[in-house]
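Sorry, any thoughts here?
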Amino acid sequence: MNFGDKYQQISNLVKEDILKVEAELQTEIGLFPALDPALKSFLTGKSKRIRPLSAFLYLRAAGIEPEENHYILQTAVEIIHNASLLHDDVVDECKIRRGKNTINNEFNNKTAILSGDYLLAAALDRLNRLNNPQITAMCADTMREMCRGEIFQDFTRGKIPSIEEYLKKTEQKTAGLFKTAIAGAMILSGSKDIATAADFAINFGTAFQIRDDLLNILKSDSLKPAENDIKCGIYNAPVIFAGSLQNLERGIEKTGDLLNNYVIKALKIVEGFKNTQYKTALEELLELLNDV
């Protein structure tokens, strides 16, 4: 079974949860008639929905049945993620996203930036409905850190950072939003074990991003241009471990080891759950991250 088929099999376990988030995302379309079809395609097009997937699996593995507030939070998280992609495409001058024209390429940078701002406003509206200051503060902190990570990346273009700087940026730009999705869901459930959920989320999100960076080098992701990061002067783990842009084989191997370390850390946390189909699915999802 290939990656896509296995991922779909895991996702089917919480299919109804994901479909509720998908339905909620469609209610955020209504910015301008000429733009709406492209924005709808962007928001609801091909996507792993990895954040809500991991959050719903974690909740159910913990024996928690999702409620309305969980769907509101996961929708807000997905909106924040997609808003950041709209802004990233402008910053990185990307023309293709998920195999389709980016909003900035189809229209212009101004439209893309304003569309991203519009989505952030929609996310804030969702968070307001939760009436939970702890969740709001967590999301605000996450968005601040995402910006810090992006600014660091921009100011260090063309320079090879340290592995510590790379991991910090990865937590800021990617893993932090997983933390909001998963630990935030546990907060809404009234759980007292938020720290464990946050630890799982950071390890899971970091592993997910390391895998993405490996795919970019290995040219195995058909939805993204090959070696796009290197062409943009963004040097991630494979280049850092190689120490240069040449002889990346060693860097690729060490990056695979780094990825596996984070997968193992997350798996150890999952071991604490009772044996259910959701625990098994989480384990399979983590093991799938090593499939590069």
